[in-house]
Write a structure and sequence with these properties.
By secondary structure, the chain is an alpha/beta fold. It folds into 2 domains: 202 residues, Rossmann fold; 120 residues. It is 52% helix and 6% strand. A 5-stranded parallel β-sheet has the order 2-3-4-1-5, with helices on both faces. Helix 8 crosses helix 9 and helix 8 runs parallel beside helix 10. The C terminus is likely disordered. The chain binds zinc ion. The site of zinc ion has 9 residues, from helix 3.
């Protein structure tokens, strides 16, 4: 393999590698599934495998000149298409890079270098909203020529849904290629959002689903590569729902801000209505200014309450996410012996659902407080609100 750090989806990889060995590769694949699951890394691994000079049982050797070139996107048989910003007006036959400023071209080259060492790195140029039709036209100019070196030509199209934005012109141009696929060529379209692709494109590709990594896999990665502690790694894996690059970024930035979570929990569980009001105001403001940070805090809060529910029901410490904070969790359980922590957890979840439906944040958060207060009083009482 060319990426030692790629967490392999074994079933998907076995299917691809054995299709290659049996000379039964599809002309076009659609790698789809949630963000951060390693789809692009697997696509580049396949591009390397089909051009590698000494593949082993697992995949590409990772050492030969073809592998080195494939990894750095320097192999003449491997072509990469990504969304690009359109800075300059270009005409029909211009290469896509002509749409960029020199600084963008340098930036792209530097990001390709990063991608060569990190399968989870996301190539992104500012202002890149769509895949330019000139990128597809360039593919069409070379697609029917023989590959530059022995092996397979692999055309990687990342964020493939952007073929269809704002107009499906690039998608329609690609469709003509997919309808008459050139020999010795494999297209790999990669997307987190396959529903945004044209049906006609989807139906020409063999779909391969890449599920989210498990919490254990993400936590293991964070411990090994980010130096995260066991407790922090588990929390980050849960908060991000198994999105490895997002978890890694959070680990690199602030980690888990336990003091922020402690304050949230303290305000939520405090008996004074002024604390609840403070909580609603702070969170509503955060939602307005930094919606991602808001979502992370709500998820942390939900995990904390979920731990309380878990401990209350099972009395087992094994599945506790904040395992480093057992004493504090037990303190909360003792302080609210009749609480229905399951209802409290659901009340926090409900806020996120409400906000997706554009319900006013202050209203959604106030409802959360009312529901949590009632849950704290236990199922049998009407609460103290
Ligand atoms: Zn090789």
């Amino acid at each position: 393999m060319i990426y030692p750090d790629l967490i392999l989806h074994s079933d998907q990889w076995r299917r691809l590698a054995s299709a290659f060995r049996q000379e039964r590769l599809a002309h076009a694949y659609l790698f789809y599934g949630p963000a951060g699951s390693g789809k692009e890394g697997h696509a580049i691994e396949l591009a390397a495998l089909v051009n590698c000079r000494q593949p082993d049982d697992n995949g590409a050797c990772g050492q030969c000149p073809a592998c080195i070139k494939a990894k750095g996107m320097q192999h003449p048989n491997v072509q990469l298409v990504v969304p690009l910003p359109r800075r300059n007006g270009i005409s029909k036959d211009d290469p896509p890079l002509k749409a960029l400023r020199p600084a963008d071209v340098d930036n792209l080259a530097s990001q390709l270098g990063t991608k060569a060492g990190d399968p989870y790195f996301k190539i992104h140029l500012e202002g890149a909203q769509s895949i330019l039709i000139n990128s597809v036209r360039e593919l069409r100019r070379t697609a029917y020529l023989k590959p530059g070196e022995a092996g397979w030509r692999v055309i990687l199209i990342f964020e493939a849904e952007k073929l269809c934005y704002p107009q499906p012109a690039a998608a329609n141009a690609l469709l003509k290629l997919l309808e008459e696929p050139p020999d010795w060529t494999v297209f790999i379209l990669v997307t987190d959002r396959p529903h945004l692709l044209l049906d006609t494109i989807r139906s020409r590709c063999l779909g391969l689903y890449f599920p989210q990594l498990t919490s254990d896999q993400v936590a293991g990665y964070l411990k090994k590569h980010q130096g995260s502690t066991e407790g922090e790694a588990r929390v980050l894996a849960q908060v991000t729902g198994g999105n490895l690059p997002q978890a890694r970024q959070m680990a690199a930035e602030d980690g888990v801000q336990m003091e922020v979570l402690d304050q949230l929990v303290a305000n939520l569980l405090a008996p004074e209505p002024t604390s609840w009001q403070q909580l609603v105001n702070d969170l509503a403001l955060l939602r307005y200014r930094k919606s991602l940070e808001f979502a992370t805090r709500m998820q942390l809060l939900q995990l904390w309450l979920r731990d309380l529910m878990f401990l209350q029901k099972t009395h087992s410490e094994d599945g506790v996410i904040f395992s480093q904070r057992l004493a504090d969790l037990r303190g909360h359980l003792d302080a609210h012996p009749d609480a229905d922590w399951g209802t409290a957890t659901a009340a926090v979840q409900q806020v996120l659902i409400h906000l997706e439906r554009n319900i006013n944040p202050t209203l959604a958060l106030t409802n959360m407080i009312l529901d949590v207060r009632e849950a704290l009083g236990g199922k049998s009482t009407s609460g103290d609100v």
